Amino acid sequence: MRTVLGKLMLGKLMPGAIAIAIVTSGCVGSNQPSTAGAENEVRATVPNTTMPDRSRSRPTAGSCRADGRREVAESKDDPQPTVPCDQPHGLETWKVADLPEKWNDWPERPDSDGRDGRAVYDEIEGSLCTQDELDDFLGRPRRIATDHGLRSERSAISSVWFFPTAAEWQAGARWIRCDVGLAYDDDWRTATGSFRDLAKDTAKYRWYSLCNDSTRVVPCTEAHTSELISAFEDIPPGGWPSTAAGGDAFSLAYWKARCEEDALAFITADVRRIVDMRPASKDNWEKGYRWVVCALSFEGKDGYQRTVGSARAIGRQLPTLAP
To answer: What are the pLDDT digits (tens) for 217-246?
Structure first.
């Protein structure tokens, strides 16, 4: 089950948001996940006692799983076996946490997409699988608190989380599994090697930039028309920044200026660029899911120029023009 920002920004996903020099090996296919490392497989067992066992079938941080396809990442649970992280995998567990004791007596698992809604999301994202902890795991700077929300850079490294299976929950399991993987519109990609401290290797981490080609989210190593450079979350209440009906012109101008600032810091080359500001939908904005994404493009003869490679500030070097 992915984060709310994750869901919204990739259409049915992205807070996070990668092409990978050493890790991308294409989309996870429809073949059955590898059974390598089956000795570490997590299985639910039939309880032999009436006493709840909160740690039943508890997974292990640092373990990896082969199948990270969208249908897996968006499910409530993920009982698939583990594989060695030095083999291609779609998900890596970076933390396993106990759920609050108040959920001990719940007969069914919480539902962040339905009846339990925002309360469940706030509980998990706010104290169990937090963005700051994920940033520490990746070795990248934490989000910066500003007067206009929490600012972060964008990458295709996205966090998801899973509950125990329904059978494990009935048996007393009360934990949450926090995973990380690579998310794009076409599907989640596979990686080889751990994500731990990946951002400390600047050359490698730059390959995880997140781009758009028209309406698709793609790795920046593929041809694209824009690059997602930053995002603001937990934005204070205010008008919806949009030119559409119900939009607020003052808020729109304000957020365009913030994105221009980020673009100037992102790329040092003196080029004709286009900076876009992309807010959450009006419905989500009014519900309190307020976020803005800043995107950078280059001018071409007929609008946006398609390029290959990240525009991240690296002297005056620019992405390669795509045919």
So the answer is: 888 888 999 999 999 998 999 999 999 999
CB atoms within 10 A of CB 276: 17
Identify whether the C-beta of residue 211 lies closer than 8 Å to the C-beta of residue 220: yes
pTM: 0.70
Question: How far, CA to CA in Å, does 89 sit from each of 24, 67, 182?
Answer: 10, 7, 10
Higher-confidence residue of 279 and 125: namely 279
CA distance 5 to 290: 9
Task: Break the chain into its structural domains and give their ranges.
Answer: 4-28+53-140+156-198
Q: How many residues does the chain have?
A: 323
pLDDT per residue as tens digits for the range 253-278: 999 999 999 998 888 766 778 899 99
**What is the maximum alpha-carbon separation in the chain?**
71
